[in-house]
Amino acid sequence: RKEVEQDPGPFNVPEGATVAFNCTYSNSASQSFFWYRQDCRKEPKLLMSVYSSGNEDGRFTAQLNRASQYISLLIRDSKLSDSATYLCVVNRMDSSYKLIFGSGTRLLVRP
Amino acid sequence: EAGVAQSPRYKIIEKRQSVAFWCNPISGHATLYWYQQILGQGPKLLIQFQNNGVVDDSQLPKDRFSAERLKGVDSTLKIQPAKLEDSAVYLCASSLAASGIPDTGELFFGEGSRLTVL
User: Fold this and answer.
1) Does residue A101 sit at the B interface (CB-CB below 8 Å)?
2) What radius of gyration do chain B's Cα atoms show?
3) Per residue in A87-105, pLDDT tens?
4) Closest CB to A99 among B41, B105, B111
């Protein structure tokens, strides 16, 4: 089982739609959670951190469910510019602090 | 502020040849990472440095991959000899973390070096 698992998609939605991605992680000791965004043939960039109480940044809402070990990202009022791959990232703390990336969920927003 | 610089951007080699990638992190960033991203997959950590010391290289195929960060600033990643399955984008990232724990979890990535092995 992969340490961080995501539905690869693609999710193909019209502009203005609401779309949600889920991510599950296997290490119950993980403490830090993030969503990164990666545009086609570009480098990943931090979209937002995910806090235990859930957090919102404009049209983006992130939720964490520690009991079920899953993280979600909700995008409201999708824009064409939201088309990208969304990477779920979880920390692993063994000999050092490291970030483990999921394979990503691809989102296509159509006009 | 200058971002993470990587070179070359693209490299095509034949299997069994060698290749080297260079990375210059953001000034003042203590921690440097090399990730391998194969098409359709997420980035996979190869090696992590804190200053000039190796923090983690458990996923680095040491029979063919090597990396160094001699003065705690820029870094090189070498592959020798290359295999077909090494075709990927090699991403360098840096973070401020001085103790190995990022304050915000934000890694700053370079644009990557795209390797094709024929």
Assistant:
1) yes
2) 13
3) 999 987 776 778 899 999 9
4) B105
